[in-house]
Amino acid sequence: MAPWRVGKTHLLELLGGWEQTDGTAYAALAARIRLLIIDGRITPGARLPSERDLAASLALSRTTVNAAYTMLRSEGYLQSRQGSGSVAQIPGRPPELPLPRPGDIIDLSRATCTAAPGTHAAAVRALDRLPPRLTTDGYELAGLPELRVKLAERYSRQGLPTNPEEIFVTSGSQSAISLVARTFVAPGDRVVVESPGYPHAFSALRAAGARLLPFRMDASAGWDVDGFDLAVRRSVPTLAFLMPDFHNPTSRSMTIDERRRVVATAEAHGMVVVSDEATAELALDGQDALPPIASFAHRPGSVIVIGSASKTVWGGLRVGWVRTSVENVDRLIAARMANDLGAAVIDQLVYSEMLTDFEPVLEFRRDALRASRDALQSALSTLLPSWTMSPTRGGIASWVKLDEPVSSAMTIAARARGLLIGAGPWFGLDGEFEQFIRVPITVGTEAIERAVEILADAEDDVHLGSHAGTYPVGARRL
Fold it and tell me: Is residue 31 over pLDDT 50?
C-alpha cells in the first residue's frame, strides 16, 4: 500500500512560524519537522513532499531542504524508499509496526481518563431499557428526547435557561466541533482562536477551510481581550472558538468581565462564539462556577456551547452535544446527514442513566484530578524546582513553564525513556511555546510522579546537549 502523503500546503500549515537563523535554517527546519513527527501531526509512514517542492514552497534553496532531510535521515526520523520518497518514522520503530502497547509507556500525550465508577452499572440499566427502542429505526437525528431533556435541565440549573429543542446530541465533542465548523464556516472564512489552544479544534476548523487568527492566552494574565477586540475589528471573522472554563492547556477560566466583553464584541460584529465546555464542571478547589458565557448573549444562537461526557465519565462513551438556538439545531441536523444519522442509542442511554445521579460522578473525577495535580506540584517542586506550574484550579491539565525554551528536545528525550508528552508548540499556531509542556493530570499519582522523574532525567541530557532523539523508542520501558 502506498504511504499517505503530506501535501505541501498542509505541511506549510504545520510548520507555522519555524525560526530561521542565518546559517542554521536547515537545522531549524529539521527540528520543526522532527517535532511534528514526534507528536503525531506527521504520522509515521507518511510521505513528505519532495525536496524540490518543499524548497519552492518555503522559498529556500534546495540545498537547505536537502540538508534538513539528510539530518532527519541520520537521526532516524526519515527513511528513503524507492518510489516513495522520504517517509516519516520514529527511530527504533519501523513505520509498519503498531504503536507501543498500553502499559509499555506512560502516555501523557492525551488528557484522557479511565471510566468513572458506576459506568458499568449504568450500562446494565441502559441495556434493560433498550428493548422498546429496538422496534424503532434507531435514528435520532437530534438525540434521544430524554437525554436532551436532562441536558437542558442541567443548563437551566446553571443559570442558562434551555429547552430540550435547543440541544443537539453528537458522537463526542470532537464530532460536535467538526460539525459546527462545517456548518458555520465557509472556505476562506476567518476564525479567531486562542493561542495556545486546543489542537484538534484547529484541525477541524482548518478542514472546514477556515483561516485561523490567533489571539494571546496567558496562564498568568488570562485572555488578551483587547487583542480579541482588535482582531475582530480588523478582520471581521465569522466565528471564534474558545474554552472559557478551565482552558486546555493553561487551566485558566475567563473572568465575568472577560466573558461579557467577548460576547459583546462578537454580537456587535455579527459573529458566532463557540464555547467548548467539556471541562467546565471540573473545579478542583470547591470554587463556585462562573456564569456560562452563553448567559451573556442577547441574540439567540450567537454563542454555541459544546459539551462532552468524555472528561467526566469516560472517553469510550461517545456522547457530545451542542447547546444553541432551535434554528441552529435545524441547520446542524441538515448538515449532519452527509456524515452520520445520529449518535449511538446505547451510548445515549448509558449517559442518561449517569445523569440521574451525576454529582457523585463529578466528585469522584474532581478528587482524582485534585490528587494528581497535587502530586505533580509536589514532584516538580522536589525534582524540577526551576520549572513553573501554572495555577491549576480545575480542568484536566497543567501548563508547565521550563527554565529554557527546550520543549521539543525534552519531548524527544522523554519519549526515549518511555514517556509521551505534548511539547508546547503543539498547542500553538506558529511554532511558539517552546518553553512550555502540557502535563495532563488525568492519570494516577504514581504515573505522575514517575513522569516527573523521567522528565528530570531527560533534562540532564537536554542541558548537556546530547541528542536524546538517537535513543530507540522504548529503550527504557516502564
Answer: yes
What are the two backbone dihedrals, phi and then psi, of residue 222, each rounded to the nearest 5 degrees?
Answer: 85, -155
d(CA 123, CA 462): 47
Cβ neighbors of 223 (< 8 A, separation 6 or more) are 194, 215, 216, 217, 254, 258, 262
187/175 Cα distance (integer angstroms)? 19
DSSP string computed for 38-107? HTTSS-TTPBPPPHHHHHHHHT--HHHHHHHHHHHHHHTSEEEETTTEEEE-BTTB-TTSPPPPBTTBEE
pTM of the full structure: 0.83
pLDDT band of 346, cuts 50, 70, 90? very high
Q: What is the DSSP letter of 293?
A: G
Contacts of 24 (CB under 8 A, 6+ apart): none
Phi/psi of residue 398, nearest 5 degrees: -120, 145
Residue 338: the pLDDT is 87
Phi, psi dihedral angles at 440 (to 5 degrees): -65, 145
Cell of 136: 424503532
In DSSP terms, 356 is beta-bridged to none
**For residues 147 and 351, is the Cβ–Cβ distance under 8 A?**
yes
Angle formed by the axes of helices 445-464 and 359-383, nearest 10°: 30
Q: Which three cell numbers stand for residue 154?
A: 442541567
Q: Measured over all CA atoms, what is the biggest interatomic distance in the chain, rounded to whole angstroms?
A: 71
Q: Among positive and negative, which fits the CA dihedral 17, 23, 28, 30?
A: positive
Q: How many helices (H) and strands (E) does the chain have?
A: 15, 15
Strand partners, 437: 400, 423
- What confidence tier does 38 reach under pLDDT thresholds 50, 70, 90? confident
